[in-house]
Amino acid sequence: MEKVVILTGGTSGIGQATVRQLREKGCRVYEFSRRDAADPMHFSVDVTDAAQVKAAAEAVFEKEGRIDLLINNAGFGISGAMEFTDSADAHRLMEVNLFGMDNAIKAVLPHMRKAGSGRIVNISSVAGVFAIPFQAWYSISKAAVRSLTMALYNEVAPYGVEVCSVMPGDIRTGFTAARKKSTAGDGEYGGRISASVAKMEKDEKNGMTPQAAAKTIVKVALQKGRVKPYYTIGFSYKFLVLLDSLLPCRTVRWLLGLLYGK
Are 140 and 113 in contact (CB under 8 A)? Predict the structure, then answer.
């Protein structure tokens, strides 16, 4: 039976690659994003608008009779010193990266509960484990996604609905160029803001391809048997996440400061 999938943020990067790979495996994938697209299975939806998300999800359910899989991928990044970050920018990021995810979950979960099956895959980030200096709000949003995943995992497990989070590391996508960068306060911070962001973006541009990340996301989304709450993409990032659980907090802080704080 073809899986009926809703994926948010699928017009570029990881999302676009994931849509293609899921369709290659026979899934019927409906994509929600603000951008226009010629794809007949695309819905122009702002994930921060709960009414829009619910209406689009209902349209998918009415057409297909079920929703098997939700992949919450929509998101963006901002960078800059926390002290100088405009509160409106921070709120906007949380609205998309966290509450947009919440809107999509609320739109599909009633159908999954009634069906007694379904899977929700939330795209987080290794930054949700390692809070990156001068990328605080992005790190906060992705850490919140991890917490949301674990809490929801236990809430809906009795109804046959599975929830997990996938954490990519550095990836070569348009996400880097789309990031809203602010160097406000760079003088006060001794040029460390611009230096940190430049290092971070260099790592991203040398990171894995979106196709490689999508391969793992698709594997998790379609795997048989119950999923684990968290999956990390890439051996090096799996090793780093393991180190976070083994090393003292001050050592982890020192490493992050060495990489991105100086």
Answer: no
Q: Closest Cα to residue 118, out of 154, 160, 59?
A: 160
Q: Which residues are tagged catalytic?
A: 138
Q: What is the pLDDT along the chain (262 residues), one digit of tens a residue?
A: 699 999 999 999 999 999 999 999 999 999 999 988 889 999 999 999 999 999 999 999 999 999 999 999 999 999 999 999 999 999 999 999 999 999 999 999 999 999 999 999 999 999 999 999 999 999 999 999 999 999 999 999 999 999 999 999 888 877 677 788 899 999 999 999 999 988 888 888 888 899 999 999 999 999 999 999 999 998 888 998 998 889 999 999 998 898 888 8
Q: CA 59, CA 232: separation in Å to the nearest integer?
A: 33
Burial 27-59 (b: 16+ CB within 10 A, else e): bbbbbbbeeeeeeebbbebbbbebebbbebbee
Give the residue from 169, 218, 199 showing the smallest Cα distance to 24: 218
Using an 8 Å Cβ cutoff, are 134 and 260 in contact? yes
The whole model's pTM is what?
A: 0.93
What DSSP element (H or E) covers 184? Answer: none
For the chain, strand residue ranges (E) read 4-8, 28-33, 42-44, 69-72, 78-79, 118-123, 161-167, 180-181, 230-232
Tokens coding 212: 């490689």
Q: What share of the chain is helix, strand, coil (3-state, %, to 5)?
A: 55, 15, 30
The answer to whether 60 and 110 have CB atoms below 8 angstroms apart is no
Question: How far, in Å, CA of 53 to CA of 43, rounded?
Answer: 9
Alpha-carbon torsion (22, 23, 26, 27), positive or negative: positive
